Amino acid sequence: MILKIIIGLIIGFVFGYALQRTGITKYPRVMGMLLLKDFKVLKFMLTAVILSMIGFHFLGELSVIKINPKPLDWGKLVGGLLFGAGMGLLGYCPGTMMARIGEGKKEALLAAFGMVAGLFIFILYNDFFKSTFLASPIDGNLFAALGVNQWIVIVPAVILFSGLIYLVNKNFSDNKKIF
Amino acid sequence: MEIDNSKEWHWFKGGLVVSLLSIGTYVVFQAIEHRSYPFGVTSGFAYISAQFGSMFGELTETTIVKNYLSKAYLEFFILVGLVVGGFTASKISGTREPESIPATWKKYHGDNIYKRFFVVLIGGILLGVGAGIAAGCTTGNILQGWAHLSLGSIVAGASFFLTAVIAAHILFYKVWRTK
After folding, report:
1. In this predicted model, what pLDDT tens digit does every residue of A70-100 receive, in sequence order?
2. How many CB pairs below 8 Å do chains A and B form together?
3. With CB atoms 3.0 to 4.6 Å apart as the test, which of A127, A150, B84, B137 could cross-link to B131 if both were Cys?
4. Could you give the C-alpha distances from B125 to A20, A121, A179, B65, in angstroms and in order?
5. Looking at the partner chain, which of A34, A70, A122 has a beta carbon nearest the beta carbon of B150?
6. Which neighbouring-strand residues pair with B2?
7. Cβ contacts (< 8 Å) between A119 and chain B: which residues?
């Protein structure tokens, strides 16, 4: 039990520290990305995705870990659209919300209250969601669905994301005043 | 016009730290808990919601409440760690600027904090319901899910961006129109 508390605290601390130091918790940064004018948040996210993607699948191939992909169902689309609307209204997501509370941004406390209330609604009407959006999930990841070796998907994905980082990095400054 | 972001980490450094955290966490979880599951932020909030749920007779026995209460204990402490991490990072870098609502919001939508609080509350609830239905937030579905090439997360992450970009363009129509 105590081990879980310590591990949880360490994960949160490192994550919160990195998010704050990189500037991902800043309201104008996130809104700047959503207005397609400041891409630092996107570059940070895609860098993390590329490096983790290579690491996860490499360790998976060595059987150090077992990759357990999230299933596809209509909830991913419906929930995703609702979540995105919330993220656009707030200017931050659940992780950065908590780091913002640490930064002294008071409104983030109200957002956290809303998040808990929203998940309470999800719990309360869980039977309804299970019988509709979450019914008949499709298991697996992209390469399993395509029936190919994992690296045949990973290599193009890494090239695509790296290319995207290169393009936005070349065309948009991180230090331009937008607002 | 340029803004001073010299105290921020480079986006690559932030991405590298987060990817090492994601991979490290996954290996640790596999070793100590025998679970093949990445860390996320939504589960921590769901743990709090489930605690509320367990106060109501008929909800206590539902699978969803039991699941969250038994599996998301560690994740609850990630939330605590995030607040401490955000606080420490902002103190160390000297970027701690407490405020009720974002200055950028005030500039375009006025000083009325209740107007912003209303938007924040609605945004928070949408985040909660959406993350519940989509089985994860930006952390679980993009930073982890995209790295795992999960079919579900690819759809969820793309949906996040779609409505978030639309909401941001509506809120900051004037900024969007200026070059």
Report:
1. 999 999 999 999 999 999 999 999 999 999 9
2. 524
3. B137
4. 24, 9, 27, 19
5. A70
6. A176
7. 42, 45-46, 48-49, 128-129, 131-132
Report yes or no: A27 and A92 within 8 Å, Cβ to Cβ. yes
pLDDT at B2 > cutoff 80: no
The one-letter amino acid at B135? A
Burial class (CB in 10 A: 0-12, 13-18, 19+), B58: exposed
Specify the higher pLDDT residue, A111 or A67.
Answer: A111
Token pair 């169902």 in the structure block, residue: A73
Beta bridge partners of A141: B150
- Annotate B88-116 with DSSP letters as a single string: HHHHHHT----BSS-HHHHHHH-S-HHHH
Work out the pLDDT band at B1, boundaries 50, 70, 90. Answer: low
| ipTM higher than threshold 0.85 | yes
A47, B17 Cβ separation under 8 angstroms: no
Query: Which residues, numbered 96 to 155 in chain B, qualify as contacts with chain A under a Cβ-Cβ cut-off of 8 Å?
Result: 96-102, 104-105, 107-108, 116-117, 119-155
Mean pLDDT of B23-52: 93
Residue % of chain B over a pLDDT of 70: 98
pLDDT in tens, B133-165: 999 999 999 999 999 999 999 999 999 999 999
Closest CA to B49 of A8, A90, A113: A113
User: Is A43 part of the contact surface with chain B (CB cutoff 8 Å)?
Assistant: yes
**Which candidate from A1, A65, A90 shows the least CB-CB separation from B120?**
A90
Question: What count of Cα atoms within 13 Å lies in the side-chain half-sphere of residue B63?
Answer: 3
